[in-house]
């Protein structure tokens, strides 16, 4: 036990050394990108059609901040269309549009181009067009199109979250609409300064060829994808390959800067292990017919571009977090800012699960202690974002509330449902909302249907509500090793009057430990427990499975039998219980006032009784057996 405590302390110190109270680098990045996403308002002009396919045919050179090429779209009219708008930043110029073999010449609008059709495209009709364009991309996002160098070698990458896609290709920049599939064809110099160049993008590599010093690489992604997750990168990458997949084998392709090759060789093998673990836990990787991979770029964090995460380093925590987003974020995407925890809480919990998987339960428990310690510093913090909270960036991407508390409520659901129902329910959720959007209520419905349990109280308290409970614990030895444990909560936020929860109670006595789980469903509540030994101390939530703030313990004096009667508590404040010896010979048990007037007759022994009807004062408890009588004084406070 002592050695285990040392491990927990050391692991907690390591967590504080890495994070302290600061946000991890990926949280800082996600908050920065979200700031611009919140400012973005999808154009009202682009809501009347649905993009179903895109083919990007691009000419780039990592030495120059310029781009040219074309984008071919298939779209479906959601209303009768006489014209069509595409989002495109002012740094780009649309040269022409090819439509049914005819050349159209769009006009520029505010960060858009306007295409007028020669005839109406009727509602429900599928159609297509191709935009030819060129220009010097802006960077309205965080380096949405960046040319730089590493170790003196030119490098190009895109980083389109939140709305930087329009900076380098004309598209529909709608964060709630996914393109069904895309092809990305990149033409670029095969060699620069003696360095062999490589272009990477989403999906699987279809082909690569070299002609006249120009290399052409084609990638195909066959699953729904929002525009901001389409990405390209070009430099002299060294490739490190792995194979993963429990359902069927697929490649993991890592594209790293050559000067970091040795470090990457040491750090990246864990990716396949994490992938296999996630597949075993959540089901098949959603893009296993294509690939997973990393491309190194010039930012310190990571960006979960579908099938190709761009990263500034290959730390296990970042790898685990961004890979988890491919289930929770890229596959099933949160439907609103209010539900952002469905992306970030899940990814954070997955990161914690990998600590359990690789480092053991002590490390996982230490992570939970670390998480609850930070959560407890936010007594009014909430997981779900209400009203004005959705406009407060610090709250939307709050490390204690959105990430850590979001992760912990998932662990609490697991603690309540058990592993089989919890993980089975998550797999059902991922199946039901594959490649789509989901809200918090959708997760609840799936888990309720799968488990057969009513989770309304849990979601109302722990997810829609704010704060957490502080506990007061009173415990005492009643008789024969039977202990009464009195639990009472104080909530830290008025949005919740009581947090219903299962709760582990642990007794310690010498070298003996007794564990049990009770359902704390009312406030206050008494539990009669029999550990089988004389207890020295007691602890609730010993493994930090529940979010609890402060806990106060009070050991009350041991109760003793008087005249074959044991009553507790006395004085009485709420619930009151009477025990009697020789209960089979008991004829009558009743309560009178001091004048002898019967207040309550036929009291049932051993059954808790609520005493709210009693006025404050002194009463007498009468017990009559077939051979004797006994009277005890009772004080009601």
Description of the molecule:
With 637 residues, the protein is of the alpha+beta class. The protein has four domains: 2-33 and 332-464, Neutral Protease, domain 2; 42-236, Immunoglobulin-like; 468-559, Immunoglobulin-like, CATH 2.60.40.1840; 561-637, Immunoglobulin-like (Sandwich). It contains twelve helices and 38 strands. The strands form ten sheets. The chain has an eight-stranded mixed beta sheet, with no helix packed on it. Helix 4 runs parallel beside helix 5 (316-324) and helix 9 packs across helix 10 (419-432). The longest helix has 19 residues, at 341-359. The protein is elongated, with a radius of gyration of 32 Å. The two termini are 43 Å apart. Residues 1-18 have low confidence and may be disordered.
Question: What are the SSEs and their pairings?
Answer:
Layout: H1 2-18, H2 25-39, E1 49-60, E2 67-77, E3 81-87, E4 92-99, E5 102-104, E6 107-109, E7 112-121, E8 126-135, E9 145-150, E10 153-158, E11 182-189, E12 191-192, E13 195-196, E14 198-201, E15 204-211, E16 214-221, E17 232-235, E18 238-244, E19 250-256, H3 261-267, H4 270-282, E20 292-296, E21 302-303, E22 309-311, H5 316-324, E23 333-334, H6 341-359, H7 361-375, H8 393-396, H9 399-417, H10 419-432, E24 437-438, H11 440-451, H12 456-464, E25 469-479, E26 482-491, E27 501-509, E28 512-520, E29 525-529, E30 537-540, E31 551-555, E32 565-568, E33 575-580, E34 586-593, E35 598-600, E36 609-610, E37 617-625, E38 629-636
């Amino acid at each position: 036990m002592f050695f285990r405590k040392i491990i927990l302390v050391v692991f907690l110190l390591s967590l504080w050394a890495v994070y302290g109270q600061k946000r991890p680098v990926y949280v800082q990045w996600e908050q920065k990108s979200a700031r611009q996403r919140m400012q973005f308002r999808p154009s009202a002009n682009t809501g009347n059609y649905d993009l179903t396919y895109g083919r990007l045919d691009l000419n780039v050179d990592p030495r120059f901040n310029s781009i040219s090429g074309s984008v071919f779209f298939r779209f479906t009219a959601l209303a009768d269309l006489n014209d069509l708008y595409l989002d495109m930043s002012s740094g780009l110029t649309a040269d022409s549009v090819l439509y049914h073999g005819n050349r159209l010449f769009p006009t520029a609008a505010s960060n858009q181009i306007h295409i007028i059709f020669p005839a109406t495209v009727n509602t429900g009709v599928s159609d297509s067009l191709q935009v030819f364009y060129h220009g010097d991309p802006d960077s309205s996002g965080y380096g949405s199109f960046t040319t730089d160098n590493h170790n003196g070698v030119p490098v190009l990458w895109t980083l389109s979250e939140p709305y930087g896609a329009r900076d380098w290709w004309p598209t529909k920049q709608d964060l709630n609409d996914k393109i069904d599939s895309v092809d990305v064809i990149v033409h670029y110099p095969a060699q620069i300064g003696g360095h062999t160049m490589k272009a990477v993008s989403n999906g699987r590599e279809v082909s690569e060829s070299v002609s006249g010093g120009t290399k052409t690489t084609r990638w195909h992604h066959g699953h729904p994808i929002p525009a901001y997750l389409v990405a390209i990168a070009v430099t002299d990458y060294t490739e490190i390959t792995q194979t993963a997949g429990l359902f069927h084998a697929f490649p993991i392709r890592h594209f790293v800067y050559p000067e970091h090759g040795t470090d990457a060789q040491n750090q990246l093998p864990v990716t396949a292990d994490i992938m296999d673990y996630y597949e075993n836990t959540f089901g098949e990787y959603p893009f296993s017919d294509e690939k997973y991979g990393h491309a190194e770029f010039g930012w310190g964090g990571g960006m979960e571009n579908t099938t190709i995460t761009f990263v500034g380093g290959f730390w296990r925590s970042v790898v685990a977090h961004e890979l988890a987003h491919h289930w929770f974020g890229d596959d099933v995407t949160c439907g609103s800012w209010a539900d952002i925890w469905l992306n970030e809480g899940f990814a954070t919990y997955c990161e914690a699960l990998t600590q359990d998987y690789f480092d053991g339960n002590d490390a996982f428990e230490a992570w939970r202690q670390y998480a609850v310690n930070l959560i407890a510093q936010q007594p009014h913090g909430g997981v779900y974002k209400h009203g004005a909270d959705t406009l407060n960036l610090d709250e939307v991407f709050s490390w204690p509330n959105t990430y850590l508390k979001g992760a912990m409520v998932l662990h609490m659901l697991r603690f309540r449902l058990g592993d089989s129902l919890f993980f089975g329910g998550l797999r059902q959720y991922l199946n039901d909302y594959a490649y789509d959007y989901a809200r918090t209520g959708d997760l609840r419905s799936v888990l309720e249907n799968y488990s057969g349990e009513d989770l309304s109280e849990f979601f109302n308290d722990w997810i829609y509500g704010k704060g957490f409970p502080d506990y007061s614990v009173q415990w005492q030895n009643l008789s024969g090793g039977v202990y009464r444990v009195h639990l009472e909560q104080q909530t830290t936020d008025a949005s919740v009057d009581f947090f219903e929860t299962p709760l582990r109670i642990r007794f310690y006595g010498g070298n003996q430990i007794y564990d049990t789980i009770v359902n704390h469903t009312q406030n206050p509540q008494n539990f009669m427990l029999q550990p089988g030994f004389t207890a020295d101390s007691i602890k609730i939530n010993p493994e930090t499975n529940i979010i609890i703030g402060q806990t106060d313990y009070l050991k009350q004096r041991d109760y003793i039998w008087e005249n074959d009667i044991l009553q507790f508590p006395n004085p009485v404040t709420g619930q009151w219980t009477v025990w009697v010896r020789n209960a089979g010979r008991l004829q009558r048990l009743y309560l009178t006032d001091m004048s002898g007037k019967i207040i309550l007759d036929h009291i049932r022994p051993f059954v808790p009784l609520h005493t709210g009807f009693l006025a404050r004062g002194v009463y007498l408890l009468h017990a009559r057996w077939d051979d004797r009588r006994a009277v005890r004084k009772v004080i009601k406070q």
